[in-house]
């Protein structure tokens, strides 16, 4: 059987699910590769970091990577990718921001965000599993929901770590990132539909 999973027709175009599964037939080996790739992309994005004056939380591309990989892979593989990423960092590999690693990062100022990555990957991936995200508004809604989950976990962890309360944590751990995360959500809302368009083009011309 060909690795290319051919699906055609008007009903197939409306099917929910991850676009990668419309492009390649699933297998355990391929799923393992995709999970590892999700963790690797998140680790690489963590190294693109810009400090925010007065905030212990830097701006990174991690949120974008987490949500994009979850939207591309679905809930199961998206969550496993983030669990693998957090595990690798927890055991000391330099995959967290600033090429850091270790349990101290998980219990530090940014630890809540890392846990939020796992939950957000499930939310966005689950949305992909049961709903269409091949249109900008569907993608945008999934990304906004995932971002809010990351904020909620991150702010809670930051408030506990700092002892400064939720108001301070929101001002330092959410407000400085709103504009950048809005831009990333809009970018994703354009990128994922393009991936679906490319898949459908290949389905109609599988050569």
Question: Would you kindly provide a written description of the structure presented here, covering whatever features stand out?
Answer:
With 207 residues, this protein is mostly helical. The chain has helices at residues 10-13, 20-23, 28-46, 62-73, 75-90, 103-106, 111-130, 136-162, 166-173, 178-204, and strands spanning 49-50, 59-60. It has 10 helices and 2 strands, in the order H-H-H-E-E-H-H-H-H-H-H-H. It has a two-stranded antiparallel ribbon. Strand 1 (49-50) and strand 2 (59-60) form a beta hairpin. The longest helix is centred in the C-terminal third of the chain and has 27 residues, at 136-162. The chain is globular. The model is unreliable at 1-14 (pLDDT under 50).
What is the secondary structure topology, with strand pairs?
Elements: H1 10-13, H2 20-23, H3 28-46, E1 49-50, E2 59-60, H4 62-73, H5 75-90, H6 103-106, H7 111-130, H8 136-162, H9 166-173, H10 178-204
Antiparallel strand pairs: 1-2
Helix pairs in contact: 3-4, 3-5, 4-5, 4-7, 4-8, 4-10, 5-7, 7-8, 8-9, 8-10
Terminal CA distance: 15 Å
Strand elements, count: 2
Element-level helix/strand string: HHHEEHHHHHHH
Tell me the β content: under 5%
Could you give the order of strands across the largest sheet?
Answer: 1-2
Largest sheet: 2 strands, antiparallel
SSE-based structural type? mainly alpha
**Coarse morphology:** globular
Uncertain ranges: 1-14
Helix content: 55-70%
Mean pLDDT: 84
Tally the helices: 10
Q: What Rg, in angstroms, do the CA atoms define? A: 18 Å
